[in-house]
Amino acid sequence: MTVSHQRTILAACAVVCAAVVFGPGGASRAQGLGPNTVNGLGDPVTPPVGEPVSQYYTEAQATRGRAHFLRNCGVCHIAPPLITKDMMPPEAGFYRTEHTLLPLGGTLARKYPSVYHLFRRIRDTMPAGNPAAVSPAAKLEILAFILKANGFPAGPSPLTLDIEALKQKPLNEQGFDVPFNGKDLKGLGIVLGFMCKPAPAGCGTTNPGTTVTVNAAKRELVFSGQPEGYWYPDKQYRNFDFRFDQLFERPKDADPDDDFFDGNGGVLFPVREHFVFPPTGARIEVQGHNLNLMAVLTPGSQLDPETRRRVQRPVGQWNSLRVVHQNGVVTTYINGSLIAKGTNPYKEPGYVIVQMEGVPMRWRNIRILALPD
Q: Residue 54 and residue 147: Cα distance in Å, rounded?
């Protein structure tokens, strides 16, 4: 694309680039969390970005991407520290002196949940006014260069135009464990039975059978509804940031306006002895009941019911849930909004479990980060 053509689309680029593509408010699976001071909850925990350690591209791919970037993106963007404003020609930037160049370096790219989401923005909207001017293959190489500018190290394998593979490359959740791979139950533990310890100590089982299955096509963990039990990442944690999407199956005979639903997929921790369900007095419960979702069930806990009413999606739709525990403080979130806060007197590490109680449920995007003491 020539500089003269680029100048004709600067006004559009000013809107699209700043507000949609690379602005600091980019969409995120672990969404940026705005202030929420209702009922004294205070500001929510900032989602950890983590050091960029994943090797998603090759050095040769990034080198080619730099040339594509200078040719097609430099009229609007810089990529510090690799391309800074003083490296750009005088004609670069919106109307030269009236506006500054928009950066792509630092943590901006990592505000996108995955490589796919960032690629999709570049693929579908850039260059502003004429996205078809640059091929998807060239945009993939531009993306490799942007990842390098954001501190992601090069690796042995290049990025490819495999959309499903790009979706599995996180940007803003570096360091998270992903215990559920979407294909099988490796990395997850299962306990089933009512008021039971697992055999041989009791009547329960760790065999998922047909009760807990995997929908590999949708990368979902599926609970049939009976018998009751729980699943858990097969590691013990003390401080953690636990995130997953959860859906309650809507009963087929429920009236369209019936919002009462009695399912429960709560989070309990620290669990040190397996039992359905671990008794109170040795663990914290974050409520999973649809009518009291993400409430922290501890003395003196705080809750923002108005925010929960506003952000929680109805039965039959996915909700993104988050439970954070650090140094005795528990905070919970629904779809990126702070919902509740409480305290945890238990200092020993243990398993973090998710109840499967009473009704069919599904989960996806399960990940957990061990936080420092």
A: 10
Q: What angle do CA 182, 366, 279 make, to 5 degrees?
A: 120
Considering Cα of 293, then 296, then 297, then 300, what sign does the dihedral take? negative
- Distance (Å, rounded) from C-alpha 49 to C-alpha 66? 25
pLDDT digits (tens, 9 = 90+) for 42-96: 766 665 667 899 999 999 999 999 999 999 998 888 898 998 888 877 666 554 4
Within the chain, which residue ranges are assigned CATH 2.60.120.560?
A: 188-370
CA dihedral 245, 246, 252, 253 (to 10 degrees): -130
- Per the CB < 8 A criterion, the answer to whether 276 and 191 are in contact is yes
Half-sphere CA count of 369, side-chain side, radius 13 A: 20
Which tokens hold the place of 181? 């791979």
Query: What is the distance between the terminal CA atoms of the chain, rounded to a whole angstrom?
Result: 52
CATH number of the structural domain 188-370 = 2.60.120.560
User: In sequence order, which residues have a C-beta less than 8 Å from that of residue 151 and are 6 or more positions away?
Assistant: 51, 52
CA distance 257 to 319: 19
Strands 102-103 and 77-78: parallel
Query: Per residue in 19-34, pLDDT tens?
Result: 333 433 333 343 333 3
Distance CA 208, CA 260 (A): 29
* Angstrom distance (rounded) from CA 8 to CA 129: 9
